[in-house]
Write a structure and sequence with these properties.
Belongs to the ParD antitoxin family. One of its GO terms (biological process) is regulation of DNA-templated transcription. Pfam families: ParD_antitoxin (PF03693). Keywords: Toxin-antitoxin system. This protein is an all-alpha fold and about 80 residues long. The protein has a domain of about 45 residues. Helix content is about 70%, strand content about 0%. It contains three helices and no strands.
Length: about 80
């Protein structure tokens, strides 16, 4: 694992310390790693949404479309 050192103003360091203590993180590194993972997931979701928004609609979007979408999402999350 690589090491990265960052500098924070006192008020941000205090905030990180509060998050570590109050949310059950063992270290500030664990907290920062989780923030980075969440940001990476957010960017991936954004890219998928933009990709989907730029595709041509091939079938009408109606109640049955959303029902099948929910079903697929439920099956995927169960894996």
């Amino acid at each position: 694992m690589s090491t990265m050192n960052i500098s924070l103003p006192d008020h941000l360091k205090h905030f990180v310390d509060q998050q570590v203590a109050g949310r059950g993180y063992g270290t500030s590194s664990e907290y920062v790693r989780e923030l980075i993972r969440h940001d990476k997931d957010r960017q991936q979701l954004r890219n998928l949404l933009l990709e989907g928004a730029s595709t041509e609609v091939t079938e009408p979007v109606n109640t049955s479309y959303f029902d099948s979408l929910r079903e697929r999402a439920t099956k995927q999350s169960a894996k």
